[in-house]
Amino acid sequence: MSGREREVLSSIARGLSNTELAAHLHLTQATVKSHVGSLLAKLGARDRAQLVIIACESGLVTPRVAEEGSSSSG
Known about the structure:
Elements: H1 3-13, H2 18-25, H3 29-43, H4 48-57
Helix pairs in contact: 1-3, 1-4, 2-3
Protein name: Response regulator transcription factor
Pfam family, one: GerE
GO molecular function: DNA binding
């Protein structure tokens, strides 16, 4: 995986959309889509959700734990 693909994967795991990714990394949306497709193929993931899981399991990103009392369901 290239350094740029690692940046894209990290950004996906943080919840950025393709549009946000393009702006954040100064890329075109077509280039972002190309990187996402490449990551899906290389990592054997079927969707962005699986990419997030892979990023967390590999230690590329650390899942945030919600602060106590910050849930909107309670």
